[in-house]
Amino acid sequence: MDYDIKKGWFKKIDGDALGLMMAKTFGNVKKQGEVFVSSYGVLEEIRVTILGKDKLDITTKNRDGPMTDEEILDSKRKLNVFTEQATGFDAKARMKRAQKKAKEGTL
Question: Which helix or strand (DSSP H or E) is residue 6 part of?
């Protein structure tokens, strides 16, 4: 899913800063070309690509098999923490922006 990056925030994730941020949040990261790849909890794969100074793509893939509610919530919280650090927008702001785009038909 594409996320907007807060104006002026790009300098905080430029270069290897995004990878370091992922490693700090999830405990692991590897770079495959221009894509940073990590995993955490029920998230078998977290792929992050910088699409521009104002846009970031975060794609996740859940692992197969049984998962507890606690594992799911912990993984979602970690992903939200990372997404806020990477975009500069908290979950509420990201939701409002997505709703606005959906109304405009640009989502």
Answer: none
